[in-house]
Structure formats: C-alpha cells, structure tokens
Amino acid sequence: MTTYAVTGSTGHLGHLVVEELLSRGVPAADIVAIARTPEKAADLAERGVQVREGDYDRPETLPGALAGVQRLLLVSGSEPGARVPQHTAVINAAQAAGVERIAYTSILKADDTSNPLAGEHQATEQVLRASGIPATLLRNGWYTENYTDRLAEYLERGEIVGAAADGKVSAAPRADYAGAAASALLADDAAGSAADDGTVPVVVHELGGPAFTFAELAATISEVTGTAVTYRDLSVADYAAELQQVGLDAGTAGFVAALDASIAAGDLETDSDDLERLLGRPATPLVDVVRAAQG
To answer: Rounded to whole angstroms, how far apart are CA atoms 255 and 167?
Structure first.
C-alpha cells in the first residue's frame, strides 16, 4: 500500500491535490495532508485523511510529518527568498524518512528563463537531483487566477496595464495543475532504481494551458462581461514607475515589471502538451475561467 503526502495542504493548490487524490479513489487513510497549522485542515481530517503538522521553517516537525510516506508532493513555498532552505529541509527529511519519490512544483522553462522567480526553483531542482530520490518536476506555468482574481479591478479601470508587449502566457487554473500533480503522484513513470551512471530517474513536465496575450485577455474579459476592457502596454521602466505611483515600493515595482518582461521574452509560453496528457483532457480555456470568476 502506497502512502501519499502533500505539503501545503491548506493552501489553494495543495488542498486541491488532496481532493483530487480522494476523487480518484485513493483511500483517505493513505493520504497525509501536511500543514503548518493542522487545525486549518479539519475538513480533510473529518474525511479520514491523516493530517500532520509540518512547517518548512521548523525542520524538527518534518520527520514526523513524513514518517511512512512513499510518495511526496512538495508544493513550493510562498515566501520569495526563503524557498531554498525551506525546500532543502523537506528534501533532507524525506531522505531520512525513506521517501521513494518526490514531485515538486517548479516553474515553467526552469532550465532557461529570465523569470525573476526562477532562481529558487532552479536551486531546488538541483537539491532534488543531488538527493538520490527519484523526482518528478512539475514545471507549472502561471495560474489563470493570477488574472481572474483581479477581474473587479480590471472592470473598474477599464484596462489592464503591463509591459508584456505581445508575449503570451500559457496559463491554466489551479484545479488543472492540481489534477496534473495528482496524476504524476499516482503514475509509475518515475519509479525505479538508479541508472547505469548512478543518477536517479528525473521526469520533467512543462505544464501550461492555452496561450494568450494580455490584449487577448482583455478582449476575453470584454466578451464575457459585456464591459469594455483594453490592454495598455508600457515599457518596463514606465510600468515600474506607474506601479510606484500607485503605492508599490521601488523594489516590488521593479520585480513586477520584470515578470512582465519575462512574459514579453516568451518565458511563460509553452507548446508542451504535458498538462493535457496528465489531465487526460484539454486544459481549461481562458474564457471558461473568466466566466467562472464572473460568477
């Protein structure tokens, strides 16, 4: 019997992955939901899921959280600048606990991207490769919710402002990425012994949905809501300056503008069909996510 664990199980993605495992027939008793605050996972505990405390910043909590686990989904931390030591603590605990496979939520095109978020994911992938544990790298693109969660703002302003030019984003909703993660955990393609050269199996999935430009995002919002929304494109410097004018500090404004610059460079667009293959269906179209967000 295989025991599956999911870190960050009270977060948006982690909780959805646990739900996916349950919906696919994995017995609740074979799922470990790891949470910094276990009380927040009471709904999962009520359904028979094992809820255990596990805090990335408190390594002493991790051995108990991972005891008896064979397959682990390591959901990347949410604190830029802290992720590498946090993830390393989990990977070290997984080694000690005898975990047989780790799936990790990385970033799209981690091998070659200018995305300012990529460095910590690249470093974590290196730690995984050196760990001796077979790994599945789930290189997730952007969540469509990064945009649809701002729907009210776009409608009020009548515009989306950015510096992405004609760059495209291969986005998908969290539920799609959760479905892909569950499939990867349940699959046996990363299982097995070391290769002849001593390396362990590493499976890489580049994950993204149907690509769209910001202008296409604005047009879709206009179509679905009946309210005209346009896209106003700025240079990276002008966008950073405008973000400062609305209250962001210089460092944060530069970071946000750099994200758009990476989109303009094509770093968040992929023609990979890995997401569709893991889901067993097409990824959810942008128009459907906008409709759902509209309510």
So the answer is: 17
Copy the structure tokens of residue 194.
């070391």
Whether the pTM exceeds 0.85: the reply is: yes
Q: What is the pLDDT of residue 199?
A: 63
Q: Are 159 and 165 a contacting pair, CB within 8 Å? A: no
3-state DSSP assignment of residue 144: coil
- Comparing C-alpha atoms, which of 111, 82, 227, 239 is closest to residue 159? 227
Using left for φ > 0, alpha for ψ between -120 and 50, and beta otherwise, residue 9 falls in: alpha
Residue position matching structure tokens 């995002």 = 217
Write the DSSP string, 256-268.
Answer: HHHHHHHHHTTTT
How far apart CA 99 and CA 196 sit, in angstroms, is: 21
pLDDT in tens, 192-236: 434 444 567 899 999 999 999 999 999 999 999 999 999 999 999
Could you give the count of Cα atoms lying within 13 Å of 80 in the half-sphere of its Cβ? Answer: 8
Tally Cβ neighbours within 10 Å of residue 271: 8
Angle at 42 between CA 41 and CA 43, to 5 degrees: 90
Residue 282 DSSP label: P
Tokens at 193, concatenated: 């012994």
Q: What is the pLDDT of residues 100-141, one digit of tens each?
A: 999 999 999 999 999 999 999 999 999 999 999 999 999 999
* 145 and 11 Cβ atoms separated by less than 8 Å: no
Are the CB atoms for 216 and 144 separated by under 8 Å? Answer: no
Least Cα distance to 289 among 167, 140, 149 occurs for 149
